[in-house]
Amino acid sequence: MKLTRIRTAAGVVRVGIVESDGIHLLNDLDDIAPLLDDPDRSLAEAALARGTTGEILNPSEVQYLSPIATPPTVRDFYAFEQHVRAGRKWRGLEMDPDWYRIPVFYFSNPYAATGSGDIPIPPGSTKFDFELEVAAVLGGYGRDVTPEQAEGLIAGFCVLNDWSARDLQKREMTLSMGPVKGKDTATSLGPWLVTPDELAAFKEGTGYRLAMRCEVNGQKYTEAVWSDVYWSFAEMISYASRGTEVRPGDVIGSGTCGTGCINELSQTHSPEQFPFLSEGDVVTASIEGLGVLENRIVAGAPAIPLRAGTI
After folding, report:
1. Fewer Cβ in 10 A, N or C end of the chain?
2. What residues have CB less than 8 Å from 277, skipping those under 6 apart?
3. Nearest to 18 by CA among 46, 44, 41, 37
4. What is the pTM of this model?
5. What distance in Å separates the CA atoms of residue 162 and residue 164, rounded to the nearest whole number?
6. Could you tell me the CA-to-CA distances from 191 to 6, 81, 87, 203 in Å, in that order?
7. Which of 172, 186, 174 is nearest to 311 (CA)?
8. b or e along 259-268 (b: 16 or more beta carbons within 10 Å of the residue's beta carbon)?
9. How many CB atoms sit inside 10 A of residue 53's CB?
10. pLDDT digits (tens, 9 = 90+) for 121-176
11. CA distance linking residue 108 with residue 189, whole number of Å
12. What is the rounded CA–CA span in Å between residue 52 and residue 18?
């Protein structure tokens, strides 16, 4: 099943099932989160039990929102080796052998979850970037779970675009803290939340043989394959649950796929060929089977100085 959370042309937020003839609205529901916290039903079963209104919307006439309005947590991992190598090279570092032993992550900002639409440039940034990722949304509780148990906690998958202020991020991380404001402004999720059974035929190794692509103003930037991921979502979720809980609605990000950001592309090729984002740019992130997220970059608020001599 493909579920989506949308804003209608009338400005009303609703949840619906995506079918070939359009979006079938569910009864009295404006967030997918309540469907995830049903211990007796899968996500698809909970959606069908809710029932539909009979109203079918044209997908081209809605705005796609984050499937979960405010996720309880957002853990973003670092699971594609090609991107990790490029990121460490950017910071003057070699690959650390521990990366192959620990699926590391950071906590991102749940309040920043968004979908399609405008994305403001973070205050004070001049090097704004996209990051193409896959996200898993959890539909169950767990603590100290095995990878096999973790697999069963996945309610669905969606596209994730982890917007990044590279200049802010680099300054923060040289102080051995972060990412902080470098990743704090927006995390795009959507356009659909797709249940794992929809993708089962494409399962391969640690991921799925599904194409990942990102374009800026119609120009291809990123082309990758989900199954190139080193750590599986089951392994990432298992690690996330060590000594703590994971809960329904938690978002687990894969980290950026190979060539999945301007920072990597500008190093591999040139900054002239792949400049950072600016006001008016349109970024289209897509994953085969999970849909397409389109965002327009807009001007952000100015940075408010903290005191003399600060940014």
Report:
1. C
2. 121, 128, 129, 130, 216, 262, 283, 297
3. 44
4. 0.97
5. 6
6. 9, 26, 27, 21
7. 172
8. bbbbbbbbee
9. 13
10. 999 999 999 999 999 999 999 999 999 999 999 999 999 999 999 999 989 988 99
11. 13
12. 12
Q: State the Cα–Cα distance between residues 172 and 170, nearest whole angstrom.
A: 5
| Cβ-based burial of 194 (10 A; exposed 0-12, middle 13-18, buried ≥19) | buried
Q: Give the pLDDT band of residue 272 (cuts 50, 70, 90).
A: very high
CB 280 within 8 A of CB 244: no
Could you tell me the two tokens for 137?
A: 């949304």
| Token digits of residue 254 | 């894969």
For domain 74-298, the CATH architecture is Alpha-Beta Complex (3.90)
Extract the tokens encoding 219.
């120009």
User: Per residue in 240-262, pLDDT tens?
Assistant: 999 999 999 999 999 999 999 99
Structure tokens at 2: 């493909």
